[in-house]
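Lab notebook page, bench 4
Experiment: in silico fold of construct C2
Operator: M.H.
Input chain length: 173 residues
Purpose: comparison with the prior construct
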Amino acid sequence: MSERYVFTPGGLRRLYRRIADSRAAYQAIADDNPEALESGDTSGWHDNFAFEENQRQMHQLARRVRDLERIQALAEEVPVHLEAPPRAFLGAAVTWCYLDEPDVERLVWIGGYDDGAPERGRISYNSPLGAALVGAREGEEREVLVADRQRRIEVLEIGPTPVGGDDDDQVNS
């Protein structure tokens, strides 16, 4: 079974930027290694906290780069929706509400794998809410786990990708 990692064009650009940023962070720490090695106990690297911390961070960043590059190798790009799709899929804007709060409508658009930015109204399709919305039709009810509580939601409307919604923006990595 092959894993799929699907992205909008903007989401793919953000993935490339996350890889570049992680590589740059790795290189900055590697460049600091000689100074870190000299700053502590010189009798051995195992007694040098600064050097050990650099090594820990380098291992962590190397793993992150490796994981992101694996996702990039398996990435598929899909276009944004210029018209409303019949079901909620990647790139679609979805208006929804909790059934126990029907007067509070919420609008999100579904972004790619781990490409959520809630402050911009974008949720990733692999988030709990995104997974609940994907494939839904207008008027359909779904369940979603929110803060360890199962809640029912209703899809009110499905629309195209919001204008400018897929523009490159900074994503916390």
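Observations: The domain at 5-77 is CATH 1.10.287.180 (Helix Hairpins). Strands lie at 5-7, 75-77, 93-98, 106-111, 122-124, 141-146, 149-159.
Next step: discuss at group meeting.
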